[in-house]
Amino acid sequence: MGIKKIGFVGVGDISGIYLENITKKFKELEIAGVCDLVREKAERAAEKYGIPKIYNDMYELFADPEVDIVLNITRPNEHYGVTKAALEAGKPVYSEKPLAATLELGRELAALAAEKGLLLGGAPDTFMGAGIQGCRKLLEEGVIGQPIGGMARLICHGHETWHPDPEFYYKTPGGGPMLDMGPYYVTALVNLLGPVQSVMGMAKQEYPTRTITSKPLHGTIIDVDCPTYEMGLIRFKSGAIVQIFMTFDVYSMPGLPCIEIYGTHGNMTVPNPNNFSGDIQIKVGESNPANVAFGSGDWVKIDTPYTCYENNSRALGLADLAKALETGREPRAAVQQTLHVLEVMRAFRLSSDSGREVQIEAPFELQPAMPIVGEEGVIAG
C-alpha cells in the first residue's frame, strides 16, 4: 500500500495523540500538513513533529493535491462545517466524534459523501482495540450464551475541573455527556450487540451554571444550556435491552464497570470504551458448556487474544479508512456507523422531550472483526 498523506484541520487538546501515533505508530500514514485558527498551535505541532506544511486555512489544505484524507479534529459544533467543506472539495474525511451536532446535519454529510463517492468515517475507534475486539470474540463464541441485555454508564461531575476550555461541553447543540462520551459507549455496544431498533430516554439539566476551576480560565462561570443527566433504554434488533446512564452531575462511584453484558448463561464486564484495552471478566453458570474452561459461580479475568492495539491507538480508525481507500472495502469506522450512533444518541433527548419510544432509521451493518494477530501499525487488507 502507498503511504496516505493526512491533512490536519484543528490542533487542539486531542491532536497530540493523533500526531504522536501517525508519526510513530502507523506506518502507512504520513502528515502532509496542519492548520488551526490559532496559528501558534499549528506552528508548535509542526516544530515538534517535523511537519512540512502549515496551511493558512482549511481551504488551502483542501486544495493541496498531496492531501489524501482530511482529519477533522475541530470542536463538535464545528465538525459539520469542516467535513462538508472538505467533501465539497473532493477529499475523503475522518472526523472526531460526533459526526455532527444534530442528526439532520449528520444525514446531510452522509448523503453528500455518497453523492461525491467519497469515504467518510470517524471516531471513536477504540472499539477496534484489543479490549472490545476480545469481548466481541467471546460473545461470538457463545461464552455467556445469547446476550439478553446490559448496562452502560459514564458517571462524572463534569470537565470544568481539568479541561483548559470546557464551555463547549455545556452548550447546545453539541454539548452534554451523551454527545461527548456517548459515542464511545454506543459504538462499543453496536459492535457487540448489533444494530439498534429503538430508544427511550429521559434527560434533565441539574445545575444552571458551572464554575471553571482549571487553568487558564479559573473562576469563569459557564451558563449551562444542555441536559447533563441523561438516562435511557436501548432496544437492539437482536432483542437485547441495555440501560445507559450518562451524566456530568454525579460524583463517580468506584468499582462499577463501564459496560456489562448479560447473557443466557453468564455475564461479561467490558473494558472502558474510551480505552483500547482493559480487563475483561466473565461469570458463567453451571448450565453453560464454557464452565469447563472458566469455572462457574466466580468472576474470572480473561486475557484478550488480540496482540495489537492495547495501548492508546487513536488514529487506528483513520489508518483503517486509509486502507479501505486503497482496497475499496468499507472502513470499520465508516459513516454508516457514525450516523447510526448519532441517531441513537439524539433519540434519547427526542424521547425525553416527546415521552415516547423513538425508532432508529439509520442502518448499521457490523464490519469484520480485527485480525487477532498482526503487525501493529500496519492494517490488514
Q: What does this protein structure show overall?
A:
The protein is of the alpha/beta class and 381 residues long. It folds into two domains: 4-126 and 313-334, Rossmann fold (3-Layer(aba) Sandwich), CATH 3.40.50.720; 127-302, Dihydrodipicolinate Reductase, domain 2 (2-Layer Sandwich), CATH 3.30.360.10. The chain is 30% helix and 22% strand. The chain has ten helices and 16 strands. The strands form three sheets. It has a nine-stranded mixed β-sheet. It has a five-stranded parallel β-sheet with strand order 2-1-3-4-5, with helices on both faces. A hairpin with a 4-residue loop joins β10 (229-236) and β11 (241-247). α4 (79-88) runs parallel beside α5 (103-116) and α7 (177-193) packs across α10.
Cα separation of the termini: 9 Å
Contiguous runs where pLDDT drops below 50 for at least 5 residues: none
| Fold-level CATH name of the largest domain | Dihydrodipicolinate Reductase, domain 2
Beta-strand portion reads 15-25%
Trace the largest sheet across and list its strands: 15-14-13-12-6-11-10-7-16
Mean pLDDT: 95
Structural class: alpha/beta
